[in-house]
Amino acid sequence: MPGYFQEPMHPDECPVRAALSVIGGKWKPVITRYLLDGAKRYGELRRCMPDATQKMLTQQLRELEADGIVARKVFHEVPPKVEYALTPYGETLRPVMKALCEWGKRHKEVGALH
Description:
By secondary structure, the chain is an alpha+beta fold. It has one domain (about 10-114): Winged helix-like DNA-binding domain superfamily/Winged helix DNA-binding domain (Arc Repressor Mutant, subunit A, Orthogonal Bundle). About 55% of the residues lie in helices and about 10% in strands. The protein is built from six helices and three strands, in the order ααβααββαα. It has helices at about 15-25, 30-35, 40-50, 55-65, 90, 95-114, and strands spanning about 40, 70-75, 80-85. It has a three-stranded antiparallel beta sheet with strand order 1-3-2. A hairpin with a 5-residue loop joins β2 and β3 (about 80-85). The chain is globular, with a radius of gyration of 17 Å. The model has no long low-confidence stretch (mean pLDDT about 90).
């Protein structure tokens, strides 16, 4: 891919912007990472991300659902049960998230040296 990153492009054509418009932000990548392990109930996700407010987590899940990354399944029982899982399209993020996790691990190790 020589020159791939040097080509001038209109901001709307930038593939990084397109990706970050879907999975960017503080919590969407984290939500996606936890859902790679399988479906989770809302409370499970809250426990995984205690720093995220209920409002923020709900908003991020709705946005991921609107973008086709996450599916919300409601079980009609008492008490009501809701699960979130990656859609097949969301599963295409698996290699991206794996690479991001690996980079994060290396960064933490290198960051400790600085």
